[in-house]
């Protein structure tokens, strides 16, 4: 397990990566309530799959990103939204946590 903290301005995110089974990776990230969840999803999936954000499909093609941001409006809530995006399963929680489950080898050519 790898545990690291990234600081960007006043925002702090904690990423933890775990290999849960052969070919499966889980990345856990905490996001600040002031962050836009839709942006954090794309950043977290890019990091989890070892792909540049520009190589990921638009999030809007998977779900309404504005609705996600509105639903998780910065107020702590018991809401959890889960969906498939860019060969991953994403779960975003209103308490500020996010999990990205990657199937296969992150960043591998066949995982796009």
User: Any idea what the radius of gyration is?
Assistant: 13 Å
Q: What overall form do the CA principal axes indicate?
A: globular
Strand order within the widest sheet?
1-2-3-6-5-4
Overall mean pLDDT stands at 77
Percent in helix: 10-25%
Structural class: alpha+beta
Percent range for β-strand residues: 35-45%
Treating each run of at least 4 consecutive H or I residues as one helix, how many helices? 2
Beta-strand segment tally = 6
Report on the biggest sheet: 6 strands, antiparallel
* Low-pLDDT ranges: 1-13
Total number of domains: 1
Distance between the termini: 24 Å
What order do the helices and strands follow?
A: EEEHHEEE
Which labels suit this protein?
112 residues, alpha+beta, six-stranded antiparallel β-sheet, 2 helices, 6 strands, 18% helix, disordered N terminus
Write structural notes for this entry.
- It is built from two helices and six strands.
- By secondary structure, the chain is α+β, with helices and mostly antiparallel strands.
- It has one domain.
- The protein has a six-stranded antiparallel beta sheet, covered by helices on one side.
- The two termini are 24 Å apart.
- The relative contact order is 0.20.
- The model is unreliable at 1-13 (pLDDT under 50).
What's a quick, concise take on this entry?
This protein is of the alpha+beta class and 112 residues long. Helices cover 18% and strands 39% of the residues.
